[in-house]
């Protein structure tokens, strides 16, 4: 009985036991995420779940990569996650990365999130020197990376030193020149200031458009050997297969576009590629181990499928995504123009406000000066009045003395009869008194004229005072005057902004006009892109004199030689593919 009960309890516990899950950590270029997954999940189940979480629809570019021993592998979609050679310790770490690269980023990348993930991954590869980038292109790419992070350049915000903590240039480029961090920042900021008016998304796309022309962009390299046992490098990218010498990853010795390849297969470590031309013999090479062959085959199949897909009509899903992207770009364009107009009006209002404030300060200064002039006029008038009063008193005193002198003269005349001598003395005294009286009379007249002149000066001072008061009243009335041509929101502190004229309707005519504007911008950009090489050459010329030749790496030397010969990534690919497939196969086997 006890054993039956125990068996029942054991059965119930098994029925209640939940299905075992396992945890996964997904590392993207921006953040890490952890999920709990069911044991039965296949690689596609996990991959689709991550894409839905990120809001990503252009899934065909991406994959989940994990590290295995001394190489990497990509999670297979059709097999269960736990049945693959993923790390056994939990959480299982997988990296969500771009597995395949577009031929033309601007035409193929539709979603903003897709573009952003590519931008972050390519930037990381350039900074870590997995993609060789010449110094002048590094500076230009750094300026677009700064614009993508900070938006439009504003000298009042982006002051010297704001890039001090940013990692913007490969260390190889920094060590190649005798330039300080401040000198590099100055060069980058000068380019950054020229990008004003672009959005952050546009800056990221400009970054990718420049980066996709770099020789090592989007290429996966593998060490191989041909039939003669020569060590070579196999490069797999969006255009086809390329064969490199081990010490030169920039310039392939021969190339095979995907449209010339009929079949790819491997057996153990031997890899076989069959050209489309059946008259041409197959060419084979050996890799280091079987796991590398599996990885090469995955990348070949995926890149070949995308190569052929690009040359067919887009699927309904892609057409829908592109239509939505065009509508979104048109909407953003309208919104950007609206914001630009609002910003322009706000700046004009702020300028008008600043002008009124400046004018107000000027009027206040003029009023202050007028007050001071009025005060000085009043002081001058008081002084003149005081001087006039003193002159009047002196004139009265002189008149009194003249009267006394006249009295004395009369008294002398009365006593003149007292004797001849006395008369003579009296006459002499009388003559002196007359002379004194004459002199006093002249002095009295002079003082009277001076008093009259002081009265006139007083009247002029009072007239000046009256004019100063009148000017002060005029200045005071101007200070409270508001020009009818100025917007009312320019007067602080009651700022109000009318938005009645900033409403928009999405009509067909607007969409046509926007389409024309977008097309016009495209034409303008095409013209501007012609000067990109000139801009790179100019940057190169500016810093060339500071280069330390002895620090150049082998790839730098090869890049300089290619530049001098006028060889680019695309021109070299075109030149190699002009040769017959047969001759290229023979060349590969003879290397």
3D architecture notes:
This protein has 591 residues and is an alpha+beta fold. Helix content is 57%, strand content 12%. It starts with a helix and ends with a helix.
Number of strands: 12
Order of secondary-structure elements? HEEHEEEHHHHHHEEEEEEEHHHHHHHH
Q: Note the main sheet.
A: 7 strands, antiparallel
Which structural category do the helix and sheet elements fall into? alpha+beta
Task: Annotate the secondary structure layout.
Elements: H1 2-16, E1 21-27, E2 32-38, H2 43-54, E3 62-68, E4 71-74, E5 92-98, H3 105-108, H4 112-127, H5 135-150, H6 171-175, H7 181-193, H8 200-211, E6 220-225, E7 231-236, E8 240-244, E9 254-257, E10 261-267, E11 270-275, E12 283-287, H9 290-310, H10 316-414, H11 420-479, H12 508-529, H13 532-544, H14 554-565, H15 569-577, H16 581-590
Helix pairs in contact: 4-8, 5-7, 5-8, 5-13, 10-11
Task: Describe the structure concisely for a colleague.
The protein is an alpha+beta fold and 591 residues long. It has helices at 2-16, 43-54, 105-108, 112-127, 135-150, 171-175, 181-193, 200-211, 290-310, 316-414, 420-479, 508-529, 532-544, 554-565, 569-577, 581-590; strands at 21-27, 32-38, 62-68, 71-74, 92-98, 220-225, 231-236, 240-244, 254-257, 261-267, 270-275, 283-287.
Search tags:
single chain, 591 residues, alpha+beta, 7-stranded antiparallel beta sheet, 5-stranded mixed beta sheet, 16 helices, rod-shaped, disordered N terminus, Ez/rad/moesin-like, membrane, FERM domain-containing protein, PH-like_dom_sf
